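Summary for the funding panel

The consortium committed to producing paired sequence-structure records for every protein in the target list. Below we show the first two records in order, beginning with the earlier of the two.
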Amino acid sequence: MGAVLPLRSTPAVSLSSALTGFLADCKLRGLSPHTIEWYQYTLRPFLRFVGDDPVGVDEPTVRRFLADQATRVAPRRVNHYREAIDRFYEWMVSEEYVTVNPAGRIDKMREPKKLIEAFTEAEVVALLEQPDTRTFLGLRDYVFMLLLLDTGLRLSEALGLTVETVDVDQRTLKVNGKGNKERIVGFSDPLLRELLRYMTRRQATLEAAEQGKCPWLFPSQHAGKAAPRGIRLRLTQYASQAAITRVRVSPHTFRHTFALWFVRKGGSPFHLQKILGHSSLDMSLQYCRLADTDAVKRQQELSPLVTMDLPVGRRKRLR
């Protein structure tokens, strides 16, 4: 049995009040609202499992919680629980609410490696044909899909763009990524042409609605910041209209598609890491490994024995 985690004698603290303090500390440290919401959502099931009293929450308790979750959710989700509990208790140790982190010695659960699915060119064409660009929201969705495909931005990053973050002269975007880390991402000439057309229409539409000061590049129909759930829902509707069932149509699939096509066309994994805002090369190298499969196929298709007019198979047998 693991050691019981003693509280410091004063002041006593419940897990729920400790969680409130932890989330407040996350906010003071400048973590993004999305990250803070993730902690809250991920730690709630743990608190329901163990109760509100930290006394008695030891390593076996955390292991039982994770084992229970492993019967309900995928390994990746179980690892999310482990990570959130670990960071929560590291904070409680630093605050001297407990003396031991009960998740500190628990290893991550092995996750199955899944092949990254990306759109085919035909699927991208079909999706881009769905929005009614005669309407403002249709044009917004059309340009939004182009931007995801052109830059590989995360959904939260794309929705966080304002008009000021777009530099049309340099063809760059100032992106606020994970952990409030800012990076510069370029975009192509074709996207520039569509963005300029869209931004003109956007401003006229907002001014007609007396909302001309709205800062968001992709506003909602009420001139606020577009909600992630609303964007996902509209993409799902376009997928249904385009009869795309082979792959999930989501903002992250656009990101995967950008990354895969980038390395297929010779892009460097180091450049891809910087563009996507990854903290390590691991994900970029995964795209490269997937592209290696494409390389084998292309070799089979473009071998000189295939593309040259050689007398292979037509050579006369020696007598």
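The next record, for a separate protein in the list, is shown here:
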Amino acid sequence: MPTCVELFAGGGGASLGLQRAGFRSVRQVEWDPDACATLRAAGFEDVVEGDVRTVSFDGIGSIDLLWASPPCQAFSTSGKRFGALDDRNGWPWTLEAIDRLRQSGSGPTWVLCENVPGILHHVDGCSREVDPTTCAGCYWERAVITGFQERYACVSWRVLDAADYGAPQCRHRVILAAGPSPFPWPKESHSALNLIYDKWVGTGYWVKHGMQRPSRGPTLADSRHMGIRLAVSSGRPDVGKLPYVTVRDTLGLKYPIRHQSPTAHTIQHLPDDVAPTILGKGTLYAERHIQKGSFNPHYHTEQPSGGVLDIFGDSEECEDTSGVVDAVIEAKGRRRLTSAECSALQGFPVGYPWQGLSTSQYKQVGNAVAPPVAEALGRAVLGALRG
């Protein structure tokens, strides 16, 4: 069985996806104690609670794949963006770990790295001639990419959306692939247009949920897509792809939809679409009367007449997680999604054993790799290994 090592393993999103793809994980390196406890509770036996910079790789044998998710806070557009100068910049540590693996005779044959798209952004007025540590985009091009090109024959990268691979969430991440040959990037398995088709051209989506198609018709965003692509289509536009997985699909919700315009400072996501990006702050909210539960595809709660799930996120009012904001949200008739609900919207299985206090669990979930993405990438690496 092909083997892999995960650096900055977190709560195990990449580890779980690679396991599903057919890899045997021989080492997960993570320095957060709660995340390590989660990995162990999930059944991973080779967890090293320690620093990527000092961990030993002696005796682990030949490694087919190294996965690394260097901390993204240094490059996130929602943070202070100290970039390469941030103490949490893990890209040099990743390259050093590759060198140590090679010195021990372990490989790795392939490397996959994951990070936020903010690492691609150049500062305003960047001439591409500045010190690369002062500009994220320059650092990516002139330090990260160059560092991998010095070690591997073929290096490429893409921005992938987790929703395209079956996660019920819009989550864009940069994936870097390095290896001995061009990387066979996995094709998208799911389609936004096919979801729109099933909702508004056909009736398959509503029939599946035992609901009547809403009389008010498609949302504005869906209408725009339909006018451009679906009006001239006699069938599903993306042949061979499944529809996007929605919040309703994931959380087993069964009740009518409500159309409501979002406020000026709040982005509203209806339950019949993918969720917004799950954040480590746990700042997604639902209507307060929606009962908390152990959600699965066969779970339905009886809701008041006209009940809905409106997911709110990315709001200015959601910046503070001290409890003050929750009180304001609750007064408006909403509640915070549970960490288990957020986990399901990340693509984790029901009952995944997150460890630690609630704040830690939200952080682990929000920082995790969506398992369906790791699985798709892992299968691509397996194809490359088999030639």
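Regarding this second record: Residues 169 and 191 are 12 Å apart (CA to CA). The first strand starts at residue 3 and ends at 7.
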